[in-house]
Design brief:
Layout (H helix, E strand, L loop, with lengths): L1 E3 L19 E6 L22 E2 L10 E3 L1 E8 L5 E10 L23 E4 L8 E3 L4 E3 L8 E2 L4 H10 L15 H6 L4 E2 L23 E8 L5 E4 L10 E3 L9 E5 L2 E4 L9 E8 L15 E2 L24 E11 L2 E2 L5 E11 L21 E2 L8 E5 L1
Parallel strand pairs: 9-10
Antiparallel strand pairs: 1-4, 2-3, 2-5, 5-6, 7-23, 8-23, 9-11, 12-13, 12-17, 13-16, 14-17, 15-16, 18-22, 19-20, 19-21
Amino acid sequence: MTISWPLSRQQVLDANGRPYLPAYANFFAGGTTDPLTVYADADLTVPLPQPVVADGTGRFPRVYLPAGLYAEQVLGPYGDVLWRDDDLGEPVPSTGGEPAPTVDPNGVASTGDVKWRMDAAILPGWVRMNGRTIGAQGSGATEFADASAAALFAFLWTTFPEGIVSVVGGRGTSAAADFSAGKQITIPTMQGLVAAGLDDMGSSPAGKLQTITNVALTAGSATAQVADPSRLTIGMVLIGVGISASTTIIDIVGSTITLSQPAAAGSTGTIVGRFSLMGDAQMPGQVSGDAITGLLPQMLPKITPSGTIDPILDHQHQVNFNFQQAYAAGGQGAVGSVGQPASNQNGQTQPAGAQTLAFHGTPFGGGQAHPNLQPTRLGTFFMKV
């Protein structure tokens, strides 16, 4: 038994009654995100590539499906999902015994879902998040090249900007058009990375991965005043009105920060600035951090040595000495034997003046990078096709 798809030879119209040009359709096994092979003939011998593309008038070709439940996903010309309906068709009649269990669509993985496993396996229906590419069969994609990659291709294309997920050769008019043209799209990498939550995640910012504080700008100046510099550090990206993209802090002195780019014309005044080492802690897919890092001199703990050194004060030394008389038998003036001491004398040295002592420290430390790794266990991240 086969099913003739109801939209065969039909047009999909927009709100103004005009056909979408072009339109695309993907098919999945009922209650799952597993791609379902569909056919151009009732005997189910000629598979159709997916997504199935409508013709120049917006009409879909004749499509046949195997008996059973299926899901359909229809996309507009820019890869936008017009609808996705499940539990279509008819269940295959039971041949006896226990009835087939029903599948809860919320209990199975959907396209774009991510999971982690403590191994390095390759899983059917999943791709590894390793920065390689996916695309249609014959596209030359390095991780997964198959018609069943269409749904994930569209998910990545429509969810993430080019700076996070790039299309090899550049983006065209839509995800479906790029997929049909044999282009490749990059899978976001999780190599050596730990998953974390967005700082806002649909709520008020938590301030864990970013610092939010007022910034006083002067148009054309790269210096600015911040209300609270206590959680700022060199290298943070500043996001705010009048600030160019990718502007970072390059120096901090008190509450004065120096930026890598000057404030835009007309931006003089106080803005609310978001500072983050993640690029933007409120944008999915951002990457930052390293397990090994080094500290700039400005990042060392602020320590003021204390203590005293007693100087050598102005002083004198006492000196004792004596005179001896020398005489011979003939009387004084003749050289002969040494006689008894004639007298004892005391004296003092002259003051040398106050002295200043120099303080010489002993160098320590090697300036090497230090480990910055949190407790971590390794495995593989996968994304559902």
